[in-house]
């Protein structure tokens, strides 16, 4: 049973966390390069939010937006 848990430890520490170790060592030389993945996620989230707001505006102007304040029919 000990070998099983050591195998799990090896998988996570030496294989799955290797990219994170690389980013940690990269931070010592370049902060911007180490946080590139964060900037990419922030750009994706910002563009998704802009798209969502534009779609909300389109449906609001078309009048197809259902403005019911109750969540379920049994609350009426």
TrEMBL record:
MF annotations from Gene Ontology: glycosyltransferase activity
The answer to whether UniProt assigns keyword Membrane to this entry is yes
Query: Which InterPro entries did the record assign?
Result: DUF6341 (IPR045922)
Q: Which keywords annotate this record? A: Glycosyltransferase, Membrane, Transferase, Transmembrane, Transmembrane helix
Q: Lineage of this protein's species? A: Bacteria, Pseudomonadati, Bacteroidota, Flavobacteriia, Flavobacteriales
- Protein's recorded name: Uracil phosphoribosyltransferase
> Pfam families from the xrefs?
DUF6341
TM region(s), chain numbering:
32-53
So which domain of life are we looking at? Bacteria
